[in-house]
Amino acid sequence: MKRIILFTLIAFATVSGYSQSQWYYFTEEFYFVKEVPVKDFHGKNFRYEIAVKAKPADTLSKVRIHGINVGKGKDDFINSDFTVESRTEQEWTIYTIVGKVDQNATRLWFYTAVNGNGSFYFDDISFYIEQEPSQWKQLLLPNTSFESANKNIFDGYYVSKRGSKTLTTQVSNQVYKTGKRSLLVTSKQQQPVSLLTTTVQ
Q1: Which domain holds residue 173?
Q2: Strands 30-37, 167-172: parallel, antiparallel or unpaired by DSSP?
Q3: Cβ atoms within 10 A of the Cβ of 174, count?
Q4: Is the pLDDT of residue 21 over 60?
Q5: What is the reported pLDDT for 22?
Q6: Residues 35-72: pLDDT tens digits?
Q7: 9 in a domain, yes or no?
Q8: What is the DSSP string of 84-138?
Q9: Reduced to 3 states, what is the DSSP secondary structure of residue 13?
């Protein structure tokens, strides 16, 4: 079900803003999800950040970052008007999801997806709540820089279960933004497919 909602989020983000859009999609897309409990922060503004160093193999390949409010139920997805911002720090792009915790949300899901071919590094995830106007507090989350001693790279994350012979995930000890490690996702030989053509009046 997480894949269904991710698919919907990407579709809206890709189609909006274009008079005519041809959307190319890689069917073996890989994603991981960080869940943040927020039942004590209803109505509060938040910031979620993740550092990405992308080396796409072609112009269609990219990283997608999205977030959504989730209620009590397993599939209780809440319409979320979040904004994705980005800035550059050295050779890393810092993506920031900005929004407000819905009154009915118990948790937030933040999706990071690799769509296409290339080498993609991820590091330094952080989450902040605005407790008072202009007063932000960082909440500690597990394994935010992929430094966990657990043999499971994705300790503390949900991960797409679709296997692929063209994609590998591993810890990188050579490229990182903070700490001594980052997550490296490498994808190759994936072929894009044209998913939809839409015209917006």
Answers
A1: 29-191
A2: unpaired
A3: 8
A4: no
A5: 55
A6: 999 999 999 999 999 999 999 999 989 999 999 999 99
A7: no
A8: EEEEEETTEEEEEEEEE--TT-SEEEEEEEEESSEEEEEEEEEEEEEEETTEEEE
A9: helix
Q: How far apart are CA 53 and CA 183, in angstroms?
A: 10
Residue 4 lies in a domain: no
Per DSSP, which regions of 38-82 are E strands?
45-56, 62-70, 77-78
Residue 24 lies in a domain: no
Q: What tokens does 177 get?
A: 């933004």
Side-chain half-sphere of 73: how many Cα atoms within 13 Å? Answer: 5
Specify the number of domains making up the chain: 1
Classify residue 10: in a domain, yes or no: no
Summarize pLDDT for 125-156 with one digit per residue, the tens. Answer: 999 999 999 999 999 999 999 999 888 999 99
**Buried/exposed code over 2-24 (b: 16+ C-beta within 10 A; e: otherwise):** beebbeebbeeebeeeeeeeebb
d(CA 47, CA 65): 13
What is the DSSP-derived secondary structure letter of residue 15?
Answer: H
